[in-house]
Every structure is written in C-alpha cells, then in structure tokens.
C-alpha cells in the first residue's frame, strides 16, 4: 500500500508570506544612485564628526553650568537621533508631497517668528530676538523659515517657468512672501541669518534660469539694505569698527572672542595638540561648541583637521551640483541648488568669521556646531534633496522616457510588383530520369 503524501496546504500560505516579506524588504533597500549615497554618506560623516567635536569643545562649559561633562553632548546627540531618522523618512517621500504641502513649513515658521517678536515667548540672545521658548524647549523659527522658503520658491518658480523673463510675474509672488519672511527675521536683529536667507533666495532665482541682469538690481538693493542694517545697531557697529581697525587693543571686550579664536588656530599648528587637549575651551573662548567650533577643530586637529572639514563641505557641494545637473525639472533644480547655497554659504560665513576675514556674525557651522533647531532643519533640507536624488534614480531622463513611450513603427509593406506570367513546362522541358550511358564493348582485338 502506497503511503499517502502529507498535506502541505497549511504550509503554502506561510511560504507565500515569507516570499512577500522578502520582496518588501528588498524594495525597502533597493539600490539608489551614486549621488544619493554621496550626499547621504557625507552628511552622516559630518554629523558624527560634529558630535565628537561638540563633546570635546563643550565638556568644560557643560561642567561649569552644572550639567556634567556630557550635558551638552547628550542634548546634541538627542537632536541627532531625531534628525537623522527624520531625514531618512523624508527622503522616501515623493516630490509631489513637497509640491502640495511644503508651504506649511513656511507658514509655521512665519507664525512662530511673529510670536517671537510680539509675545513674551520671544527670547533675546546676544542682542538678537530670534528664539522662542515653550515649556523649557527653545528653538529658532528662522531655521524653519529657511526650509519653507526652499520648497515654496521651488514650487512658485516651477509654475512661472514661462514668465521668469517678466518683472511683474517674478516680483509679485517673491517680494511680498520671501521678502516679508526675511523682514521678520531682520526685525529680530539676526543679521547673519538674514544674509543666509538672502543668498538662498538669489540662489533659487539663479538655478531657476532667471537672467543675471534681472538678479543684479535686487542684489545691489539687498546688499545696500544689509549695510544700512549693519550700522543700525551699536553692538554691530562696534564689531565692524573693531574689524576694520588696524589693531585690536580691547582684548577684554569685542576683540576677546576673535583674538582667542586666532590663538587657538595658531596653537594647533599642522597636526594639532590632540583631540580633547584644547586650552581655549577652558573658558577662554566663548561659544567654543557653537559659533567658534572651527577654532577648536583647528587647535586639536591642526591644519590637517581643518582642511578635512573644508574638504567634506566641498564633497557636499559636489553631491548637490551632481543632483542639480541630473534634474530635469525646475522644482528639483531650485530646491537642490538653494539648499546647497544655504548650507555652503553658512559654512563659509562661519569659517570666515573664525579666520578673521569678516566681522563676527554669530552663524553656526552646519551639521557640526551644537544647536538642535539648526541641526534638525538642516537635515530636513538635505532629506528633501535626497528624495529628489532618489526620484532621479527611479525615473529615466525625458528623452529616454519619450523613446520608451513612442510606439514602434513598422516599415510599410512594399506594393507587390506585377508577377511574371507563369511558364508551363513543355513536354520537352519535363525532366526525365537520366538514362545510364550505354556501355561500349571493349575492343579485345578479337
């Protein structure tokens, strides 16, 4: 008697579920473009490097503030644990999501900035009214305005692509909305952030394809306004006068931070004094973990460490430019280009302040300096650009897509030519079987 086969009907759904799970996991980790990984890898390296330098530069100030040696570091690490997963989630969202809902970030930032200016929730730091405090949590609404401006400018300039050569269509949406957002930040006295936002707007116009002659006049007007605002404050006027002076004699006042930043860079030399061995962080250099963290990098890691940081920002610029070049629509170009201008101009201003090239403005080093709102919003902006890079990897170029969608045309059939009349074989032409040749009698001589 043949043994009966076991019934596998119950195992079939299990096998099907396992197969489905494998397919889902595979789709979640599908390969992206090289631009995606270059931008993601450089960003993660800068964040990790920033956490190490925040730990080194803030340990003394954190201890004197009775937060322990790791108080500022743990807080910055918490912001990184929030920002990095948020960046990865944002990178999975489609571009259509940002085109539909991106303006909400700008609206939220403007509302919060109004609360900073006209309610008791506003907090003044260093003479600038640019912080809001709610329940022990502080943030800068101007950082959220940057993200909102990037996405809103991408949507508006993409819609008005055909009319960017006309002053009216270019000025009507941008001047009241973008100019109003910049004006709100300007009322708080944060000149450094105003400069970054102005550069972001002009970068968006440039990558949208607006003619340079149309950008030149607003650029001159904006630069003149920044100069007027710079001299409208007594503290800023003093800092500018100190910067323009031949020598800095008041080392206990406005020159203190600049001079000790230069001392830290000089002490580092080529190879640095070693990670954690900075002397400037022992309450000699104000904002050592924030605005002047590049000075601590130069002191502990030397010229080599400083050049590595600059090289990482160059790699970030290359990743952004490659994404801009691979973009085939105005929205993607504007968003990727304006985020690049935002991050790189802020890095340039921070490093230039530490090196004494420009007056002190109070701008943090992106992805490295301590500060939760700056880190999270910067990671959100990079996440939007990562979603664009991911869409480029999964969408072919327009010419390739058109070639795929174009139906294949067959060559037309040639008309049949007049056939020659069929010839009927005559009886003579009918092939007959070949008869064997007659054999000849052999002559035997008989």
From TrEMBL:
Record key words, sorted: Cell cycle, Cell division, Cell membrane, Cell shape, Cell wall biogenesis/degradation, Glycosyltransferase, Membrane, Peptidoglycan synthesis, Transferase, Transmembrane, Transmembrane helix
Biased composition (Low complexity): 403-429
Reactions the enzyme catalyzes: [GlcNAc-(1->4)-Mur2Ac(oyl-L-Ala-gamma-D-Glu-L-Lys-D-Ala-D-Ala)](n)-di-trans,octa-cis-undecaprenyl diphosphate + beta-D-GlcNAc-(1->4)-Mur2Ac(oyl-L-Ala-gamma-D-Glu-L-Lys-D-Ala-D-Ala)-di-trans,octa-cis-undecaprenyl diphosphate = [GlcNAc-(1->4)-Mur2Ac(oyl-L-Ala-gamma-D-Glu-L-Lys-D-Ala-D-Ala)](n+1)-di-trans,octa-cis-undecaprenyl diphosphate + di-trans,octa-cis-undecaprenyl diphosphate + H(+)
GO biological process entries: cell division; cell wall organization; peptidoglycan biosynthetic process; regulation of cell shape
Region listing for Disordered, in residue ranges: 397-446
PROSITE patterns: FTSW_RODA_SPOVE
Gene Ontology CC: cell division site; plasma membrane
Transmembrane region(s): 36-56, 68-89, 101-123, 143-159, 166-185, 191-208, 215-234, 301-323, 335-361, 367-389
EC number(s) stated in the UniProt entry for this protein: 2.4.99.28
Locations listed in the record: Cell membrane
Function: Peptidoglycan polymerase that is essential for cell division.
Protein name: Probable peptidoglycan glycosyltransferase FtsW
């Amino acid at each position: 008697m043949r043994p009966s086969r076991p019934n596998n009907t119950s195992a079939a759904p299990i096998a099907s579920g396992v197969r489905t799970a494998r397919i889902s996991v595979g789709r979640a980790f599908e390969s992206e473009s090289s631009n995606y990984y270059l931008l993601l890898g450089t960003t993660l390296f800068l964040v990790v490097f920033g956490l190490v330098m925040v730990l080194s530069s803030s340990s003394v100030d954190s201890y004197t503030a009775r937060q322990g040696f790791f108080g500022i570091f743990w807080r910055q690490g918490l912001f990184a644990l929030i920002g990095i997963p948020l960046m990865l989630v944002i990178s999975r969202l489609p571009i259509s999501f940002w085109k539909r809902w991106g303006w909400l970030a700008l609206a939220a930032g403007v509302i919060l900035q109004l609360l900073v200016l006209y309610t008791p929730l506003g907090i003044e730091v260093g003479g600038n009214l640019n912080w809001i405090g709610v329940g022990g949590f502080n943030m800068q609404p101007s950082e959220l305005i940057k993200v909102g401006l990037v996405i809103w400018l991408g949507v508006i300039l993409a819609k008005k692509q055909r009319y960017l050569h006309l002053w009216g269509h270019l000025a009507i949406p941008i001047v009241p909305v973008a100019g109003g957002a910049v004006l709100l930040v300007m009322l708080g006295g944060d000149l450094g952030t105003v400069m970054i936002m102005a550069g972001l707007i002009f970068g968006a116009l440039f990558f949208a394809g607006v003619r340079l002659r149309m950008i030149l006049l607003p650029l001159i007007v904006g630069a003149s306004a920044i100069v007027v605002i710079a001299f409208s404050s007594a503290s800023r006027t003093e800092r500018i006068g100190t910067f323009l002076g031949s020598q800095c004699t008041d080392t206990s006042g406005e020159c203190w931070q600049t001079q000790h930043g230069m001392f830290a860079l000089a002490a580092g030399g080529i190879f640095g004094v070693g990670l954690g061995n900075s002397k400037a962080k022992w309450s000699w250099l104000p904002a050592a973990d924030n605005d002047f963290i590049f000075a601590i990098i130069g002191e502990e890691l030397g010229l080599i460490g400083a050049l590595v940081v600059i090289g990482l920002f160059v790699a970030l610029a290359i990743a952004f430019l490659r994404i801009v070049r691979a973009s085939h629509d105005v929205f993607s170009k504007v968003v990727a280009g304006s985020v690049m201008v935002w991050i790189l101009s802020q890095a340039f201003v921070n490093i230039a302040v530490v090196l004494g090239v420009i007056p002190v403005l109070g701008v943090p080093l992106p992805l490295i300096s301590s500060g939760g709102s700056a880190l999270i919003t910067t990671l959100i902006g990079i996440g939007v650009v990562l979603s664009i890079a991911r869409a480029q990897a999964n969408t072919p170029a327009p010419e390739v897509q058109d070639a795929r969608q174009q139906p294949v045309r067959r060559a037309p059939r040639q008309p049949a030519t007049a056939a020659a009349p069929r010839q009927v074989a005559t009886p003579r032409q009918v092939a007959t079987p070949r008869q064997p040749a007659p054999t000849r009698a052999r002559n035997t001589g008989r």
